[in-house]
């Protein structure tokens, strides 16, 4: 199980780097913004599944993003539970509804808020892997 956590962490770390590359390019064309949003969706999926794997390791079996976020917050894996729930909501909106105004708002959230949450999670898992596993 420890190996799965490390593997998921490495996938998350790599995907986050690609997301950061995506948001570093000025979104002067819709395709650039669309690509960054798609990378965000991928990083979000990897992030909650990484947390799920860790919670499973600690004895909690949760299989949906909202529950994982809730228990990750309660167990000190993440600090900003409400922001993570907002991120989940935005991720869900990108999957089911699309318009330019909403895409721009979500892109701004990704660039100025969500990447920082992902970076905090990255640091937390570097700590977990170094000291707890």
UniProtKB/TrEMBL annotation:
Highest taxon, organism lineage: Bacteria
Molecular functions per Gene Ontology: transferase activity
Source organism (scientific name): Caldicellulosiruptor owensensis
Protein's name according to its UniProt entry: Nucleotidyltransferase
Keywords: Transferase
Annotated signal sequence range: none
């Amino acid at each position: 199980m420890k190996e799965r956590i490390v593997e998921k962490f490495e996938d998350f770390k790599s995907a986050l780097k690609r997301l950061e590359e995506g948001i570093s390019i000025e979104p002067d064309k819709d395709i650039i913004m669309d690509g960054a949003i798609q990378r965000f969706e991928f990083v979000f999926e990897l992030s909650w599944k990484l947390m799920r794997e860790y919670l499973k390791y600690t004895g909690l079996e949760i299989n949906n993003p909202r529950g994982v976020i809730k228990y990750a917050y309660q167990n000190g894996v993440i600090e900003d539970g409400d922001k993570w729930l907002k991120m989940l909501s935005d991720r869900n909106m990108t999957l089911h509804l699309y318009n330019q105004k909403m895409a721009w708002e979500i892109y701004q959230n990704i660039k100025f808020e969500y990447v920082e949450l992902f970076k905090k999670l990255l640091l937390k898992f570097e700590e977990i892997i170094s000291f707890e596993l």
